[in-house]
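Slide 14.
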Amino acid sequence: MKNIICKNGNGQKIEFNYDFSPFFLAGCEGIHEVQNSISLDEMTVLDGARVIGTKTPPRPIVITAQMETDYVKNRNLLYQVFGQGTKGTFTYIEDDSIKEIDYICESVSVEDSGVIRNIQISLICPDPFFGDNEETKVVMAGEVAAFEFPHEFTEEGEEFSYRIDRKRVKVYNESGMMDLGLTIHVEVGGNVKNLVFTHLESGEYIAINAEFEKGDFITIFSERGNKNVILKNGEVASVNLNYKLSESSDFFALQTGENTIQYDAEEGEDNMDVALSYETKYPGV
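Slide 15: predicted structure.
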């Protein structure tokens, strides 16, 4: 069973499914396709071409639907939810799978006669990848909950949490995306100097040449369009630390398959709580 829900920035939403309540889902194009634009350099004296780079273009989605009653009311609802240039979230539900993607409405057309009237809605998704709206968190060093609520206490002295300290962890990216954005969270509990995070498979690393003190919070973003190192301490305004990065630093992301992440520091590597988080992205549903 398939369901599509479109919700705009004002919280107004429409559901398309296989009954007229009020819209029947006749079809949806652009959700299963995976497209890549490949840039080539064709050399004049050699056969073939050299690959310069690849990228995934914005995703067009076209919803085809129908309505059979309350034509004026339903048409006005469409215009409210899909107003000119309206931004929103497209949610695709199939069995137990739920995927989401942000869109901008390009056009809406509604047939003006007939008992069953056809509707076509054209959406453009600047970020072409779907997400499952669930963040995965991996604790490298810090407290981990020992159980979840609701919980039945069966014996005295049960621990609420326990501490783990790992300088190296393996993260598996099963999404099929080659560069899945990663966020690194660091809470400093003592003096730390010159912090380094390394992606062992690629050899890429992020080296921050700076000294930190208790109460500092460091967040490293390696997502597309957001590659930054941010420092915050209490009520002090956030500071961008990109200028403290070594010249050879690279904001690595998770590659398809196994990823081994390691952290080190010149001083105080045991004075930190460290966690990784990411939202799995998909090239199609």
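Speaker note: The chain has one helix and 20 strands.
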